[in-house]
Write a structure and sequence with these properties.
- The protein has no helices and nine strands.
- With 121 residues, the protein is an all-beta fold.
Length: 121
């Protein structure tokens, strides 16, 4: 696979959008300016400002999407996570990773709780 430096995947440092729902992180980004791009690989690893290894081998989650600018990563544990992405074309060329983005995933609130008896003084 060739590394293409000419196309840029843009996950803006503030992210176009990041939504945290319980154990799911929803990400969105801007399209690459290269018209040959057909999809994106999104990588996640635990830790704040974690540096990704060559070929992203330290990624805990990898999501590949085609013809869309969003991805969801499920079963994400609470804590800091770092995300990055790259683009690919139909010939198997892969871009360099975009700038990393870090987000904190909070603990999911407990479910199934109900109030049994409340006394208001």
């Amino acid at each position: 696979m060739n590394i293409l430096k000419k196309f840029a995947v843009l996950i803006v440092t503030t992210l176009a959008s990041i939504t945290l729902i319980a154990d799911t992180v929803n990400l969105s980004w801007n399209a690459s300016t290269d018209t040959n791009v057909i999809g994106y690989n999104v990588f996640a690893t635990q830790g704040s400002n974690t540096v990704f290894a060559v070929n992203n081998t330290n990624a805990i989650y990898v999501v590949t999407v085609t013809n869309q600018l969003t991805a969801s990563i499920t079963n994400v544990h609470a804590g800091y996570w770092t995300f990055t992405a790259n683009a690919f074309d139909g010939a198997g060329n892969i871009s360099v990773n975009c700038t990393n983005v870090t987000a904190y995933v909070p603990l999911a609130p407990p479910s199934g709780l109900r109030v049994i008896n409340v006394t208001i003084p």
